[in-house]
Design goal:
homodimer; alpha+beta; Aminopeptidase; Alpha-Beta Plaits; 2 domains; 6-stranded mixed sheet; 4-stranded antiparallel sheet; 36% helix; elongated
C-alpha cells in the first residue's frame, strides 16, 4: 500500500483539478436544455476512465446514458467482483442568485470545493475512481474486479437503471455494491450506513352525510365526520408514542446492545436540533433515543388532513367527509405489504357505525438491513478507520433509497453505503460543496476498501 | 269576527290574484340588473297598502328601499303597537331550466302557487296585509296599531335595516314583532317558533416544526401536528356526545317537561331523515331526541380541517401545522362570548407541550328565547289553532335569525315567529311555491292574532 499512498499524496491536487473539470458539466437531468451536456458529461467520464486504464462504455437508454467503467477485461472472473454505483446527473442549480460562485464554475474556498454536484454525487464516486487509478497507475494488482455503474437519472427518478440492471444481470453479478451517496456526521465520525427504513402509504376517508349540511338545521343529530376522523386517528398512537395496531411491532428486530451503543456515538445536540426545526420539545417512542427514533423505529405519520371548508372566515357546516393521508416508516424486518394490510383492517374496525369508511392502499417499500457484523461490513469499517483515523459510526437511514432495493431484488446482493457528504454540504441547495479533506480521505478509504473486501 | 270571516271567504280568490301581481316583480336584490324592479316592487307594495287604507312610505336607503305601511295615523298611540316584519326581495331564480313554470310568471297547480318569492317571503307577509285589509274594509275596529316593515335586502344580508331601526327607534317602539319567515311541519301542525340557537366560531391552529419535514429524516423524534390536533379534538366530545369543556353547560336552561312534550309532537321520521342525508345512523347527545338535538341542544362542530399535503398521491412529510375551523351552536341562556372564552381556554390547556397553539376567536350570536307561556305567545298559539283547526306545535330553530337579534337589541322587544312555509315549498330552490290553503289559513290566523294580542 506504500506505493498507492505515495501516489495519492503526490496526485491530490491533480485529483481536485480533474474533479473540477468533471463538475464544469451542467449535467442537470431534469432540464431538457441540458440534454447535450448530459451526453457530453457521460462521454467525458468514459474517456477519463479509459485514460486511467478502465474499459468503459456509454450505454444508450430510453433517457440519459449510463456509463460503465470496469477493470474486468484484465482478469477473467477469477477475482471477487464488486460494483460501485454513482450518478453523474445533478439537481437544478436554481435559485442562482443564492450562489456565492457560479454553480458550474467550481471554486475552492477554505478547503471546500463549491459546485453543483460536488458532493451529490460526482465528488463521491470520483473518489472511488481515483483509488482505482492509484492501483492501475502504480501497477499494483487490484485484489478484486470492479465495475463502476454511473447513471444519469438519479435526480429524476428515471427507470433506465432498473431496465439496465435487468438486462445486464449476468455481467453485473457481484459480491457486493458500494454506494457513496449518503452522509457522515463529521470528519471524526466516518460512517457505514447499514439499514434503511421502509415505507407504507395509505389514505383514510370517513364519509358522513351525502353533502355538506347546514349545522343549524342538522347539527347535533348526526355525527361530524371530521370529529369521527379525529377520534379514530387519536387512537392510533398512545401516550408513550407507541403505535396501537395489534401486531404492528411483531416483526421488528430488536436493536442489539451493540447497535444501540453505536447509535449513541452519533453526534446529536438536542438544543440545536430543536432550534433547527423550531419545535418546543421533542416527542418520540418511550424508551428510545432521538437517534433511534429517527432511524431505527417505525413511525405513523399523518401527512395531510382534509375536511369541509378551508377558506377564509367560517362556514357553518357539518362536512360531508374527512380524510387523512398517512405514511408509516418501517424497520427491519417489517413487511410493508403486511403492515399496510393490518393497519387498514384496524382502521376499518375503529370506524364508528354512523360512518362509511374507505381505506386506499398506497405505495410500499420494504426496510433494508445488512448485518454490521458481516465480513464485508467489517472490511468497510476497517477501511473507514484507516483513512479517517477515527472509529467509524454505524448509521441507519430514516428514509428509503430505491437503488438499494433494486440491487437487492435484481442482483440479489447487499449494498454498503459509505457516505462522504457532510451535513453542511448543501445537497440540493445553493452553494453545494465537498470538503476536500473528506474527498482526500475518501480516496484513501476506497484504496483500502478493495484490499479489505478481497480479504474478507 | 263574523264580518271579517265573511270578507276573507268572499275575497280569497282576489287575494290570490293580488299576490300573483306582487310575485310578477322580479325583485332579485342580489342582481343589479333588477335594481329598477326592486324599486317598482316597493312602489307597488306601498300603493297597494294605500288602496287598503294604510299610510305608506318608501324609504330610500344606502341599498334597496324599505317600505313601511302603518295603521297608526288612525289612532294616536292609545292602542298597543305591533310590528310585522317581512321582505319583498327574493333569491335569484337560477337555474331557470329546472322551473316547471317561469319564476316570475306565477302559476297555480294543484292548490299551490308557484313563483320565486311565493313563500319566501312575499306570500307570508302578504297574508298579514290581507288580514288588516279585512278589518279596514269591513270597518271593524283594529284592536291594535300595526306597522309593516318590509325590507329589500334580506337575501343579501344588507345593513339598511339595522340603520333604519336605529334611526326610527321611537316610531317603531312596540309591544312585539311578528315575523312569518320560518316554517311549519305541515297543515296539521301550525307552529310558533319560540327559540333560536346562537353560534360561536373559532379556529385552532397547532404548530409543530417551522416547515414541512422529511418524514424519513425527522419522523419519529418530533410530534406530528396533525396527530396532536386529532388527539385534542377527539377530547372535545365524549362517547355520549357531551361537550367536555368544563362549565360549557352551566347556563343552559333545562328543557321543561312541557317543552319536551311539545317537541315530541313535531313530526320526525328517522328512516326518511337518514335516507335524505345518506347517513347510516344518527348520533346525538345521550338522553335527547333528534328533534331536541337539532334545535334545543348545543353542539360542537368541526367545519373544516387542514394540514400538510392534500393533493394527489402521497407526500412523506411531517406537516408544519394542522388547523381546524370550529363552530358551536348555543342554546338559551348560554352567552356566546363567554362560551368562546372558556372553550378557547380549554383548548389551549389541551395542547401538548411539544406544540405551539393559536386560537382565533370568530363571530358570535347569542341564542334567543321567548317564553312559550307568555301572554303574547299564548295569544299566537290560540290564533294558530283557530285558523288551522289543529293544536299548534312549539318549534325551536337550530340556526340563528339575525333580525330577531336586531329587534331585541335595538327595539328591546320580543319576536314571535309564525312561519307559513311548508318543508316542500322549495325555498331558495327552483319551483318555489306557497300552499294556497296555508296562505288562506295564514290570513285567518293573522286576523285572529291582532284581536288576541290586544287582549293578551
Amino acid at each position: 500500500m506504500k506505493q498507492i499512498s505515495d501516489y495519492l499524496e503526490t496526485n491530490n491536487q491533480k485529483f481536485v483539478e480533474e474533479l473540477i473539470e468533471y463538475l464544469r458539466f451542467p449535467s442537470v437531468s431534469a432540464q431538457s436544455k441540458h440534454k447535450i451536456d448530459m451526453t457530453n458529461c457521460a462521454q467525458w467520464l468514459a474517456s477519463h476512465g479509459r485514460s486511467i486504464g478502465l474499459k468503459t462504455k456509454v450505454h444508450k437508454t430510453s433517457g440519459h446514458p449510463i456509463v460503465t467503467l470496469t477493470t474486468k477485461q484484465k482478469t477473467n472472473g477469477s477475482k471477487p467482483h464488486f460494483l460501485v454505483y454513482g450518478h453523474y446527473d445533478v439537481q437544478p442549480p436554481e435559485p442562482l442568485e443564492l450562489w456565492t460562485s457560479s454553480p458550474f464554475a467550481p471554486e475552492v474556498r477554505k478547503g471546500n470545493l463549491f459546485a453543483r454536484g460536488a458532493s451529490d454525487n460526482k465528488g463521491q464516486h470520483f473518489a472511488h475512481l481515483k483509488a482505482v487509478e492509484a492501483y492501475l497507475k502504480t501497477n499494483t494488482e487490484l485484489p478484486c474486479d470492479l465495475t463502476f455503474l454511473i447513471e444519469g437519472e438519479e435526480e429524476v427518478g428515471g427507470e433506465a437503471l432498473v431496465s439496465f440492471l435487468k438486462k445486464n444481470k449476468r455481467e453485473l453479478k457481484c459480491e457486493g455494491v458500494v454506494v457513496s451517496d449518503t452522509g457522515m456526521p463529521d470528519l471524526k465520525h466516518p460512517a457505514l450506513t447499514y439499514a434503511l427504513r421502509g415505507v407504507a402509504a395509505l389514505e383514510v376517508r370517513i364519509e358522513g352525510p351525502n353533502r355538506d349540511l347546514h349545522s343549524g338545521i342538522y347539527g347535533g343529530a348526526i355525527e361530524n365526520p371530521a370529529i369521527a376522523l379525529s377520534k379514530l386517528l387519536a387512537k392510533m398512537i398512545d401516550k408513550n408514542g407507541r403505535i396501537t395496531v395489534p401486531g404492528f411491532y411483531n416483526d421488528v428486530i430488536k436493536l442489539s446492545a451493540y447497535e444501540r451503543k453505536q447509535m449513541a456515538r452519533i453526534p446529536f445536540n438536542e438544543r440545536n436540533f430543536k432550534k433547527l426545526l423550531g419545535v418546543k420539545s421533542l416527542f418520540g417512542e418511550k424508551g428510545f433515543t432521538p437517534n433511534e427514533h429517527r432511524a431505527a423505529r417505525p413511525t405513523f405519520e399523518i401527512n395531510g388532513l382534509t375536511s369541509g371548508y378551508q377558506g377564509e372566515g367560517s362556514k357553518t357546516i357539518v362536512p360531508s367527509y374527512a380524510s387523512a393521508k398517512i405514511t408509516m416508516r418501517l424497520v427491519p424486518n417489517q413487511n410493508a405489504a403486511k403492515i399496510l394490510r393490518i393497519v387498514a383492517q384496524h382502521i376499518k374496525k375503529l370506524c364508528p357505525e354512523t360512518m362509511k369508511i374507505k381505506v386506499e392502499l398506497g405505495h410500499v417499500a420494504d426496510p433494508y438491513i445488512v448485518s454490521p457484523k458481516g465480513g464485508l461490513a467489517k472490511a468497510a469499517l476497517k477501511s473507514l478507520k484507516s483513512a479517517f483515523g477515527h472509529e467509524p459510526v454505524l448509521l441507519r437511514e430514516g428514509g428509503s433509497i430505491p437503488i438499494v432495493e433494486h440491487f437487492a431484488q435484481i442482483l440479489k446482493v447487499d449494498t454498503y453505503l459509505l457516505g462522504l457528504a457532510l451535513p453542511d454540504d448543501n445537497l440540493h441547495s445553493p452553494n453545494e460543496k465537498i470538503d476536500l479533506e473528506v474527498f482526500k480521505r475518501g480516496i484513501k478509504m476506497s484504496a483500502h476498501l478493495w484490499k479489505n473486501f478481497a480479504e474478507a
